[in-house]
Design brief:
The structure holds three protein chains of three kinds.
Chain A (H helix, E strand, L loop, with lengths): L7 H11 L29 H13 L8 E2 L12 H7 L2 H4 L11 H18 L3 E2 L6 H16 L3 E5 L4 H11 L5 E5 L20 E5 L10 H8 L6 E6 L18 E5 L15 E5 L12 E5 L5 E5 L6 H4 L12 H39 L13 E5 L4 H10 L2 E2 L2 E2 L10 E5 L6 H12 L1
Parallel strand pairs in A: 1-12, 3-4, 3-5, 5-6, 6-7
Antiparallel strand pairs in A: 2-8, 7-8, 9-10, 11-14, 13-14
Helix pairs in contact in A: 3-10, 5-10, 6-7, 10-12
Chain B lengths: L13 E2 L4 E5 L4 E5 L1 H7 L4 E3 L6 E2 L4 E6 L4 E5 L4 E6 L2 H4 L3 H4 L8 E5 L11 H9 L2
Antiparallel strand pairs in B: 1-2, 2-3, 3-9, 4-6, 5-8, 6-7, 8-9
Chain C lengths: L55 H12 L22 H7 L2 H4 L11 H18 L3 E3 L5 H18 L6 E5 L5 H8 L3 E5 L9 H7 L4 E7 L11 H10 L3 E5 L12 H4 L3 E3 L20 E3 L11 E5 L2 E5 L16 H37 L15 E3 L2 H4 L5 H10 L6 E2 L9 E3 L7 H20 L1 H6 L11 H6 L6
Parallel strand pairs in C: 2-3, 2-4, 4-5, 5-6
Antiparallel strand pairs in C: 1-7, 6-7, 8-9, 10-12, 11-12
The chains are: A alpha/beta, B alpha+beta, C alpha/beta.
Chain lengths: 444, 133, 485
């Protein structure tokens, strides 16, 4: 087998050196009651060519966003990935290396991650960013735990307009802790409603998502002002579409203490929801409470510049049960991909692409309204928005699936009060023709 | 690592068995770590100190010292209230290494029970303890 | 000196991204604009982020040069103990990149995702079969995430029984993520000392186990590379007082096809797909940490779960006792696809051979190096072995010096200073994908270094001499962190 290089002779030679008569000897001390009674029941080993056929067949049974008009975002976005980025990620010096514990022979990874950290701080307008969390959802959960540590309080306010799956993950992380989560409703215009906070004090954090799950751009400045009425409360701004910050005012400039979210849009394939990229950034004052790995600049003993993992005393391998998080392996290669993507786009390109996404979405919105459809939320949006569809749309929706059109994400399972509404998303990958066809089909 | 004979161990302080020193002032005591401790820990990169007003019992953890690869907790040699912390250690944690008994002091405490000072060691007793380690 | 793998060569200096580029360059093909610009409230607009503008050539050269500074498994032997740095098959990459998988949206109706759902469903079953446990969730995104899932399941189990418990037993050989994960669930970690043989004693567990202890987190084989011989007795003691056995499966590479974790007494186990199942480490992830449980604990698994109902594969949330969700969607599916490909490529016999070979390679190194290096536990090891710098320390040469010098010989150093129970630990895990001649070259290098330690310790203090940089200043990086430009 091509991944098991040692032949019978080599095995025999090694056994002789060890002084064992067979490979089974090396397992002799394992108690019999711990052993398997039967061999594992798995499919017979496939040749490379059989595997290709098998996998091609499975992949053919998926309607990917590359061949179908999937007008769905909701935390996973179809964007073009340059061939140069996919190619560079294939360099096995990046992908087959591990955590850069030995910095002398890991400067490639270390510089790539330092550059990623820097680009993220510039994108989000924050002071410091880490090397990644698993995804936007777990990043939000860790941001709230961080706010609790920093403020020494045990209550957080979380907007209902944050992605429902993200809120579920926060609930899961919080369940054994006893910390309290106050849910903030949303207003008729689609933005978070802070009125519920007027009687509440001692919050560790107020968390909103912008653009939020409905695609609406939140008034982050007001949220930050509200949070900072109390000097200990942190404002946590999360996101699912970082491309928005190529165009909109970034969370840092509006007062966010922690900005975190999903970076999959930046050069990472959707891949049925993972691997993604948890972008995580904060104000400098909080750096020692941050979870995740951090790469820092330094010099070597000859004074030459380089990079190392630093502030490791926050982390699990040193601080153990008092660590800021248990995270070890994160999404390193995905962060590298995002950096390559941001480098390829450049500041000018990112602005151009964000504007194009906004314009495409605005076009679809306009056409939907012209076709007589109602949009329940009037707050400005980025590349997603909610549409109320006619009463019997479900049947039409199923028919459209057969035509390779996914007409938005039905919201009823997530927000029963929004039954009959769908969340639509467009990106630069959709043409005017695609959008016109959709409107014709939906409005017919 | 220094030999015991090379260590700087002043006579004007008392020592705890986990290597803190205590110097009596006017109704308060100043606390830091001994030359032995800083030598063992290596380069200190960060000192986590409590806030003025915090109260701790004898032997309770009141802060921590970080080197690059390790964290060590600091334990109160006597119980009491924090009346001052050495803010200079924020910018210059290396003072713990270079001047452990002077500029590297960590907290100033108003002792709750001055009798607890009796349980601390003189320099000679501390040296004996170090020899046994 | 015989020619070794490490040598001088021309590699390139390369500045930081923002030290290059010219405003107006681009490395991206902007899609054609077929709709008009839309009005936008100026108050919402920010400035463009301060990113450099680079051409495609700038970007490709940048990252090509950076990659040359890295040592990966494809560069040479990478015996990093506890990490299982085995070869990453390239066919796995081809499968994960298939457009049908890469372009799959997680929230479209199930009928459009049958191919990927079928893959995940099968993978769950294969992992259950390999471990001997009953049910699997692929959702955790890394080993530590799987540990968190396991601890949450343990917590939920006791709450469900009406009596939450507050403590968890954790051996002193445990990986740091174990106590950190336990803390996230509000458990207090109670450390357990290993015995003189480097394994757990049933008696010690017996003294510590009580009705307020939720269970024990074991790693088996443990981080000293030793099989926990007393594990069944330990499991009985913990179970007798109503506790659960959590097994950190990071070292599964030693025992595939040989051990039945359920028979051992394990209730919950996590796997590291990026270790045992050959998916690439990526310079720090993405990994994948599926959690496997007994039938009794199945109801607590994270949702949604992949099920087969009415002739199709579906994602179901219909599990009222679930601990909930740990990931926005279904975990690192792109990584799971690679593990699935690996299992199909190896088959049952191949996986067992992989474990046998991993153990053989480690024992070969242990036998041949024990003359030159101090072996704290001289007994058969599993897939990794642990030495110390005791013999070299008399010359004032440390584990760190030995590790740095190994780079000059063309090897990635082993894991150093872990586990903490051994002073100056050097943990070597060759894996099964390393051929004998590389093991011999590694052994030769280690032996040469042992001689250098005696004859020329200063050389080792000055190592590494060949890489681009030499002993970076981690102290000032921690005192005055500079974390971005």
């Amino acid at each position: 087998m091509r991944y098991l290089p040692n032949t019978e002779q080599e095995i025999a030679a090694m056994l002789e050196v060890i002084g064992a008569s067979s490979q089974d000897d090396l397992f002799a001390t394992i108690p019999s009651e711990c052993r398997r009674k039967n061999p594992m029941k798995l499919p017979p080993a496939m040749t490379e060519w059989e595997l290709n056929q098998h996998m091609d067949k499975l992949a053919d049974q998926v309607s990917g966003t590359h061949h179908n008009n999937v007008f769905v975002g909701a935390g996973s976005y179809h964007h073009h990935v340059p061939a140069s980025v996919s190619y560079l990620l294939g360099r096995s010096e990046f992908s087959t290396a591990y955590t850069p514990y030995q910095p002398e022979i890991s400067q490639g990874t270390l510089q790539a991650i330092y550059e990623y950290q820097s680009l993220v701080t510039r994108l989000l307008g924050m002071d410091v960013a880490n090397a990644s969390m698993y995804d936007g959802a777990s990043g939000l959960a860790e941001a709230l735990l961080m706010a609790i540590r920093v403020s020494r309080r045990n209550k957080v306010a979380v907007s209902k307009a944050i992605h429902p799956n993200y809120r579920q993950v926060v609930n899961t992380y919080f369940k054994p802790t006893g910390y309290e989560i106050i849910e903030l409703p949303y207003r008729p215009d689609g933005r978070s409603d802070l009125a519920a906070l007027s009687d509440i004090t001692d919050l560790a954090a107020i968390a909103v998502q912008s653009p939020n799950f409905f695609g609406c751009i939140e008034d982050l400045e007001s949220v930050a002002l509200k949070a900072h009425e109390d000097s200990k409360t942190l404002m946590v701004a999360c996101f699912t579409e970082p491309l928005a910050y190529g165009l909109l005012k970034n969370p840092g400039s509006l007062g966010a203490d922690i900005a975190c979210g999903e970076g999959q849009s930046f050069g990472i394939p959707q891949s049925f929801g993972g691997p993604g990229l948890g972008m995580f950034a904060a104000k400098k004052a909080y750096v020692r409470s941050m979870p995740g790995r951090l790469v820092g600049r330094t010099v070597d003993r000859d004074g030459k510049g380089g990079f190392v993992l630093t502030l490791a005393t926050r982390e699990q391998h040193i601080r153990r049960d008092k660590a800021t998080s248990n995270i070890c392996s994160n999404q390193g290669l995905c962060a590298t991909a995002a950096a390559m993507y941001m480098a390829s786009l450049g500041g000018t390109g990112l602005r151009g692409l964000a504007t194009l996404n906004y314009d495409k979405s605005a076009y679809l919105k306009k056409r939907m309204i012209q076709a007589g459809l109602r949009l329940p939320f009037e707050a400005p949006t980025f590349n997603e928005f909610v549409v109320k569809l006619p009463a019997e749309f479900e049947q039409k929706y199923q028919q459209l699936l057969k035509k390779k059109i996914v007409a938005g994400l039905p919201l009823a399972p997530y927000y029963p009060e929004l039954a009959g509404c769908h969340l639509f998303c467009v990106t630069e990958t959709f043409s005017k023709q695609d959008m016109d066809t959709l409107v014709e089909e939906v409005a017919a | 690592m220094k030999e015991i004979t090379q260590l700087n161990l002043p006579e004007d302080v008392l020592y705890a068995d986990d290597h803190e020193w205590v110097r009596k002032d006017d109704g308060t005591v100043k606390i830091g770590i001994s030359d032995y401790a800083q030598d063992q820990l290596g380069d200190i990169v960060y000192v986590e100190l409590p806030q003025v007003g915090d109260k701790f019992d004898q032997k309770e953890a009141f802060g921590s010292l970080e080197s690059v690869k390790a964290v060590s907790e600091l334990f109160m040699p006597v119980g009491g209230e924090v009346v001052a912390v050495n803010a200079g250690l924020e910018a210059a944690p290396e003072l713990v290494n270079t001047a452990p008994y002077t500029d590297g002091w960590m907290v100033e405490i108003k002792p709750k029970d001055p009798a607890e000072l009796e349980s601390l060691m003189s320099k000679d007793a501390y040296v004996e303890m170090l020899k046994g380690l | 000196m015989k020619e070794t793998a490490g040598t001088k060569g021309l590699i390139f200096n390369e500045p930081l991204l923002w030290e290059k580029g010219v405003r107006g360059r681009t490395g991206f093909s902007m899609p054609r604009r077929d709709i008009e610009e839309a009005p936008m409230d100026e108050k919402l607009k920010g400035g463009a982020p301060d990113f450099p503008d680079l051409s495609e050539v700038d970007v490709v050269r940048h990252y090509t040069r950076l990659s040359q500074w890295n040592f990966g498994v494809d560069s040479g032997m990478y015996p990093l103990g506890s990490c299982t740095m085995k070869y990453n098959p390239k066919t796995n990459e081809r499968q994960a990149a298939l457009p049908g998988f890469a372009a799959a949206h997680p929230l479209v109706p199930a009928q459009l995702s049958q191919g990927i759902l079928q893959l995940l469903y099968n993978l769950q079953h294969y992992l259950a079969e390999i471990t001997g446990l009953d049910a699997v969730s692929l959702q955790p995104a890394a080993g530590a995430h799987g540990e968190l899932a396991g601890m949450l399941i343990c917590h939920a189990y006791h709450v469900h029984k009406g009596k939450p418990r507050s403590k968890i037993l954790i051996p002193d050989t445990a990986h740091g993520t174990n106590p950190a994960s336990a803390s996230l669930c509000g458990f207090k970690s109670i450390p357990v000392k290993s015995n003189a043989q480097g394994i757990l004693s049933a008696d010690v567990i017996g003294e510590l186990m009580d009705e307020d202890t939720a269970g024990i987190m074991v790693t088996n084989p443990n981080t000293l590379g030793l099989f926990e011989d007393n594990i069944k007795r330990v499991a009985e003691i913990v179970h007798a007082k109503g506790g659960l056995i959590y097994c950190d499966g990071a070292n599964m590479n030693a025992v595939m096809g040989i051990i039945d974790m359920k028979a051992v007494g394990v209730d919950i186990l996590h796997l590291n797909l990026h270790k045992t199942f050959s998916t690439p480490h990526g310079g720090g992830g993405p990994g994948s940490g599926p959690v496997c449980v007994t039938k009794e604990l199945e109801k607590f698994l994270p949702v949604p779960r992949v099920v087969f109902e009415q002739e199709q594969y579906l994602l179901s949330n219909d599990f009222p006792d679930t601990i909930g969700k740990l990931h926005a969607f279904y975990g690192n599916v792109g990584v799971q696809i690679k593990a699935y490909s690996y299992i199909l490529s190896m088959g049952a016999e191949g996986l067992k051979q992989a474990s046998q070979m991993a153990v053989l390679n480690a024992n070969y190194i242990k036998t041949r190096l024990k003359e030159s290096y101090h072996l704290p536990y001289d007994r058969p090891c599993m897939h990794e072995c642990v030495f110390t710098d005791q013999k070299q320390s008399v010359y004032k040469v440390s584990t760190l010096d030995i590790a740095k010098r190994l780079m000059d010989y063309g090897f990635h150093p082993p894991t150093i200073y872990f586990p903490l129970v051994v002073s100056g630990a050097i943990m070597i895990e060759p894996t099964e994908t390393e051929p004998k001649e590389n093991l011999d070259a590694f052994i030769d290098a280690m032996q040469a270094i042992a001689v250098e330690a005696e004859k020329d310790p200063d050389l080792l203090h000055r190592a590494p001499l060949l890489p681009k940089l030499n002993r970076l200043d981690e102290t000032s990086a921690a005192r005055n962190p500079c974390l971005c430009d």
